[in-house]
Every structure is written in structure tokens, then in C-alpha cells.
Write a structure and sequence with these properties.
Two copies of one chain form a homodimer.
Chain A lengths: L1 E4 L4 H12 L5 E4 L10 H6 L7 E4 L2 E4 L1 H12 L9 H18 L3 H9 L6 H19 L12 H11 L12 H11 L14 H6 L3
Chain lengths: 209, 209
């Protein structure tokens, strides 16, 4: 199993975190985004979207971090990570949609502005971030993990960009249930942290994009 | 089975279309968005996000259009709509992520500007729309439906906002494979169309939001 990733990509971290939580042996291959290696033809053959992460299981390429979570859970995970009961599966899907929607265009986008110098409207994406964080905080007031009393792939999908939201000037201090949940995820056996962006490094790497 | 919906919401149409394709008897309950009925407490109890659609199956409320597709497919659909093979399930998830991400913040957002007078950067969302339409067009050059030779819930998730993208000034004329696929979806037994926005109506309904 091989994971094409980038250490500053939260989408990559989701996949890496779940591989580790499941105890699956894997090689990490860093894709040099600053050299646009993700737009090279041999990478586009694996993922026409030109994005990390991509999981290779033998010759099978799985792109999209949510899709990687689904694949790993179904093929290697215990049923608790992604129950097959239709109501629970739907509830998990709701949060995978949030990860691909409100989180990607909220805290992840806010962080893209500061870390990768991407042009987004900071007010719009920061306000979208707080709207979804309020909903997540209210949900986490009711139980330890977002869908159940135990972690599922929905928690893995939400974790990375929420944990690093402050890098995009999204303040987490008033979301007490979110903060308790972050600690709960970080206490899971085989947790691997999402690297903090070293101050200044991002400029030298990405200012030309 | 009851579907809370709005006739101009593409997210609602996804759910309604799939209910119809599966031949499931259901009642439609229109939520008056112009009167903010979606923000009333009894609606927020069904969906704290305050969004249509919401599917009621007895006392169970399922919110998020992707989640509704997953629920209906697992509970009532033939396996072809949402195969359980891990590779196929992951491939379908990749496009559900696109529906919640690039489509929601691309063609759906572009249409929100014109139909619902929501403030988005038109250049940004229209350019994002064409980026994802190019990828979808390339994928549909290779097979009749987005993941397989038959339709899956990924096609249902993608259909509504692509079909009505021109309402947001996203021109579809150069995407021949997308256009052929739209016709293929529209030819499925029990297809129900996504209502075109009547010219002028949107102003009277939504100009005050």
C-alpha cells in the first residue's frame, strides 16, 4: 500500500491518519506541490484531478480522501468505523458531505489563504467556518464522537482541517465540545499528528503559485 | 415516506429524482424558503442545518441529499445503484464528494447568484464550474455513466445542478459527453425533471433575502 501525499495537506492527513489507526503498513510518497508534480502526466493518470492524496493498493488507484476512507474501512476496517446499517451509513455520509463541502470551502480554504497563498475571500470562508463549527460543536455536545459513542470515518474526515483551523485565523477557543473531541481523537491508539506549518516555510515554498 | 423539499432546490431534486427512479411512494412537503420556514424551530429539529431536503421515513429524519441517496439505495434500491464492492463504493464516494464540493460551490453557487440573489464571486464559481465540468466530460467520454456502464447514485447526485447550470451562466454547449449523459439520465424510467426557474419569479420570491 502506497500513499501519495503532502505533509501540509489536510486531505492527505485524513488518509494517513486512518491508515495508521487501522495499523496498515504503508509507504508514504511525498508529491512536490511546489514543483507542480501533482500536474505531471504520470500523476494525472492516477488522479485526473491533480490532487493529493492518492492511495495505491497494488495497481488500484483511489483518489479523494473521503473515497480512501470508505475504501480502507470496507476492505480492512472493523465494521464500527463504517457501519452498514442504512441510518448510520446515511448519518456518516452527511458528515463526509460536510468534509467535502463546508470544511473544504471553510477552514481548509481559510488555511489555503495563509499557508498556500491561494486567493479566497477571507471573510467569506472564515464566516462559513464558524457556521459549520457551531453546528459541529452542538452535535458534539450530545455524544463523544460526531455520529456515535465511538469514532467512525466521519470523525477522521472532519479532524485534520478543524485541528489546524487556527492557521487560517479561524479561532476555536469558544468551541469547547470541539476542543474536547480533538483531544479524544488525538488519544486514539496509533494517532499520527497533522504537522503544523512551520512559520515562514510556506512563503518560500508557495509564494510563486 | 415524506420529503421536505423546495422545487427550485437542486439538492431537493436529487432526492426527489431518486425516490421516483426507485418507484417509492412519497409525499412532497414544500418548505417555504421565502418565509424562512427552513429556519423555524420545528424544522431545525429535523435538520439543524436548516436546509432542504429532509427525508422522513416514519420518525427517522435523514438530512443532506447525498445521505438521502445512500439511505434509499441501501434500504430500498437494487445493489447496482450503490455496489458494495470496496473499489466501486470508493469510486461512487469520490463523486458524492464532488457533488458536495465542486458542484455545490461551482454550478450550484453560480445559480444561487441568479436565482436566489446570494452574494458569491461569479468569476470564481463559474471558473470552478468549468474546471469540474471538464473533468466530468472527460470521464463520460469513457463510459455511459460516471462510474459504471449503468447509473449509480453518483449520477443522481451530479445530475440536477449540471442540468440547470446555464441558469447560473455556466455554458454547457462545449461539453458533448455531459450533454449526452444528461439525455441518458432523462431517458431513465420514472425520471422527473428539475423545474426550470420561471423568468422573473425568482426576483419576486427572493429579492428580500
Amino acid at each position: 500500500m502506497k500513499l501519495y501525499h503532502h505533509p501540509l495537506s489536510g486531505h492527505s492527513h485524513r488518509a494517513r491518519l486512518f491508515l495508521s489507526l487501522l495499523g496498515i503498513d504503508h509507504d508514504l510518497v511525498e508529491v512536490d506541490l511546489s514543483a507542480a508534480a501533482n500536474k505531471a502526466w504520470h500523476f494525472l493518470e492516477l488522479n485526473p484531478f491533480g490532487q493529493v492524496p492518492v492511495l495505491m493498493d497494488g495497481d488500484t488507484a483511489i483518489a479523494d480522501s473521503n473515497a480512501i476512507l470508505v475504501y480502507l474501512a470496507r476492505k480492512f476496517g472493523k465494521i464500527e468505523w463504517f457501519p452498514t446499517d442504512p441510518v448510520l451509513e446515511a448519518k456518516i455520509q452527511r458528515w463526509l458531505s460536510v468534509a467535502a463541502g463546508e470544511i473544504a470551502y471553510g477552514p481548509a480554504a481559510a488555511r489555503l489563504i495563509t499557508v498556500f497563498r491561494v486567493k479566497f475571500d477571507a471573510d467569506e470562508v472564515i464566516s462559513r467556518s464558524h457556521a459549520i463549527l457551531k453546528l459541529i460543536n452542538a452535535e458534539l455536545a450530545r455524544r463523544d464522537f460526531i455520529v456515535a459513542t465511538h469514532p467512525t470515518i466521519a470523525d477522521v474526515a472532519l479532524y485534520s482541517y478543524i485541528a489546524r483551523a487556527p492557521e487560517g485565523f479561524v479561532d476555536l477557543s469558544c468551541y469547547s465540545h470541539v476542543n474536547a473531541w480533538l483531544k479524544r481523537i488525538e488519544s486514539l491508539p496509533h494517532f499520527v499528528p497533522f504537522k503544523k506549518t512551520p512559520v515562514g516555510l510556506e512563503k518560500s515554498l508557495y509564494v510563486s503559485r
